[in-house]
Structure formats: C-alpha cells, structure tokens
C-alpha cells in the first residue's frame, strides 16, 4: 500500500487479514464459527460507512471471494457498506500464472494466516470461480511479470478514472 498510498493520498488500505487474523487465532478456517466472523467484519464496515470523520477517505479493501453462496454473501457486506457511505464499488482483480502463484504462496514473506498450502491453492485455482462484480468499474490485472510499482500505477489510474465516471 505504500506505493498506492502515495498515488492515492486520500486512500486507506484495510487488508482482509487485518480483519480476520484476530478471529483466526481462535478458529480455523474449516470451523463453522470461522464464518461467523463476518458479523465482526460487518460491524467494522458499518462503522467506516457511517463515520463522519472518514467520509472523505477512499477505502481499499483486499479480499478474495468465491462466487458461491458464502463468497457472494461476503461481497454483499462490502456493497452494503459502500451504499451506506454513498460510494461506488471499484473492483480490481489481480491475477498471476500458476507458477508465480505457487512461488508467492511459498514465500517466507507471506503472513502467517495467509494460504501457504500449495495443494489447497491448486484446488482453488481448478475448482473455484472467483467472484466478479463485472461492469466498467472492474479491472482485471495480470501481475505475473509486473512490478509492484507498475501495478500500483495501473490501479491508481483505474480507480481515479472510475471515481470520475461515478461522479458523473
């Protein structure tokens, strides 16, 4: 976010792991209570959406959801927060080829609660469809051979253009 933050100075990043890591210390992903953490996340999103102090902030949330019922319900939470705030949703989907994805999953720089099992990753890549908002406010960006700086510039340009379109 350091690079993107300099390009979008009125933006704040809220990484999904900042939200789920406190819960993940108690519940594992497969436990039914883990999905209950959405209520915790909804509370945070609602607070952000209704805050007068944060009204001029562009919020960037990282998350990856499947197109199934659970993923769609999680996405609905973000959409509801945006509607409450009177903001538009701009979707940026970062993709990379399988070899690069495996390399990143095995990286020692990866956070401790992030996916680190290659077999699970390969299953997700083969069996799950990624949730897509669709429309003109969605950018799909292949970052396989792209630097973080180049990706940040592409994202910032897209977000800025989408914001101008949303304002009319």
Question: Low-confidence runs (pLDDT<50, min 5 residues)?
Answer: none
Overall shape: globular
Order of helices and strands: HEHHHEHEHHEH
Binned strand content: 5-15%
Q: Report how far apart the termini are.
A: 28 Å
Please tell me how large the radius of gyration is.
16 Å
Structural class: mainly alpha
Give a description of the structure.
There is one protein chain. The protein is built from 8 helices and 4 strands. The protein is mainly alpha-helical. The strands form 2 sheets. A two-stranded parallel ribbon has the order 1-2. Strands 3-4 form a two-stranded parallel sheet.
Summarize the structure.
The protein has 168 residues and is mainly alpha-helical. It is 52% helix and 12% strand. The model has no long low-confidence stretch (mean pLDDT 87).
Key terms:
168 residues; mainly alpha; two-stranded parallel sheet; 52% helix
